[in-house]
Amino acid sequence: MTHTLAICPRIVEGLYREALALSEDVRGTFSASGQMSGQLAPPARPASGTKVPTTDEDRIRIAYSRVGLATTTRMMHAIAWLLQHRAYFMGEIGEEQLRRHGRLAQDLRHAREGREEDEALLDAGITRLVARTRTFYARLERLDETWSLSREEAAAASAIERLRQRIEGRLAS
Fold this sequence. Notes:
Layout: H1 9-30, H2 56-89, H3 95-101, H4 116-119, H5 124-172
Helix pairs in contact: 1-2, 1-5, 2-5
Organism: Novosphingobium mangrovi
Pfam family, one: DUF1465
InterPro entries: AraC-like_sf, DUF1465
């Protein structure tokens, strides 16, 4: 069973441009706390047993900061992954370097948990932007997995081919 490579320089370039545009939206949304006042939803009721800051405004500011940090981090990891693959396709790094450093951060999955409560405090436009970054990152995760499987299969196939050639060489002798 062979997979065709699901990633090529043209795909990486398109995703890179998309990531830059999305990152610019994230930066514009979360960069200045002075912009925050017009982007927040009315306060929601806290879940029972949740430690509540002194005021609703404090809760909203904390939620805004937490969601902003998680979203910005997600996009930084996405751009780093894309830059690694761009460098590989441009011949600036080898396959070994890409294999060692070109994987997406798997620990960002836990960053998805527990954010619903924070996001409920924010404006719908912010939550849509956060959802767009999650969808984008999920696309990269699927590409990363497919790319890894393709490289592993290619390596296994070449190892089998080398072994076959060695056996044929010994049998011919």
